[in-house]
Amino acid sequence: MKWLVNKLVRQYMRLRMRRIERYMKRPEEPQERWLQRLLDTARNTEFGREYDFKSIRNAEEFAQRVPAHDYESVKDQITRMMRGERDVLWPGQVNWYSKSSGTTSDKSKYIPVPMSNLYGCHYAGSWDSLTLLYHNKPDMEVFRRKNLVMSGSFQSLNEYPKTRYGDISSLMTHHMPVIGRAFHTPDFKTVLLSNFEEKIHHIAERTSRRDDIVMFGGVPTWVIVLFRLILEKTGKSNMLEVWPHLQAYMHGGVGFEPYRETFRALVPSDSFVYQEIYNASEGYFGAQCELGKNDMLLFADNGVYYEFVPADEWDKDHPATVVLADVEVGKNYAVMISSNNGLWRYLPGDTIMFTRKNPHCFRITGRTKQFINAFGEEVMVGDTDKALAEACRQLNAVVSEYTAAPVYFSGDQGKGGHEWVVEFEREPSDLERFNEVLDLMLQQINSDYEAKRFKSMALRRLHLQTVPRGTFHRWMRARGKFGNQNKVPRLANHRNFVEEIMQFVASSNA
Fold it and tell me: Distances in Å between the alpha carbon of 288 and those of 58, 187, 285, 299?
């Protein structure tokens, strides 16, 4: 019977692919439609009345009338919504919120997730991602065997118990449609446990006894932790010996390049596929549409109207934006969204670069608050991920985690530089050579860094510090950031994280 379900789903995917192909060719049409639909839906909310949504006729008027927002500027409205107020940013009462702890702040953000957004954006994005996966790999058996997704947990708000909040993965798991539940493992009680360490051990125990898992998903860091637990329990050498039917991994949340070699060792198969997805707390924005290319298709018909902020506008209170039709390939943009969750001209903090148009495909380059630009070098996370991956390839090394920060002018040399803290899974035989190659690769990838490094006139060669295996996990746990949705901060324009980690190592060795 399950083979028949998979066959029927595959036929549905073919029909869905036609819709995707339409907006791949003409993304401007659904974008215009969604802007008008969103404005019409929210015209009688408090926010819609304040900015007179009913009189906005086009994208230009929308951009002129509604200011850009970050979380701080809408936090008060969201707090009121969480305590039961209706018709504030979105019509009706919103009882579900995705919690995002972020990487550069200890403060949590709570993003409204009305059912229109959960089903019309997050689940719609999931279906589109699966459609692209089946399109590229027609022998997929997602709806014949079992699938494992590393999920978070949710809880009720003390002041208003009707309101529940948690990782977006937990909200999607809790509301998962019936067809998905039949092919999910392990049981939902286990997946939604609030204690992450307890949960990951329970998942390892239950799934290590199965042989029918075909696909898995989750942040790479924590999937690796799970797989090592399973291999320890089973005594197997790789995950194909545990789950022989494995076909695909849907990954997102962090750049994948530093983890690629580790996963190749864990799942040693040339036919196994990796699909990158862009599913944030604020919405499901894209997925890899061609498995041989390292970019993602922007989901233009998914409950979200997009604008893009050029890099030279990021620090402005009222940044100029461009719409999807006017983006340029090869330029860094901050993403701005207006969505069916009640966020209006909202900046999630992610930066992307379009790699092509029609279809509009892009790469995530980092975060507006995760970069190093202390000396005009404008180094983004995408740059460091690529440079690190190439250095590892050349010197047969594997990196588990890393973070980097500037070293400011000091002493008689009057030169700055970058300091990297790196945890190796497999160290290179020549660490000094690795340091040299990493610096050269970063110069090749980033021309601004190369210019500052010319003859070491402005910047010294980057300096590498290594830490013992497991350091980053222990540091994240000590910070209260241990869990599926928490990510290691890769870059910062300050030295807080680098110094915290090195102090943590020193105190651990004391």
Answer: 31, 29, 11, 10
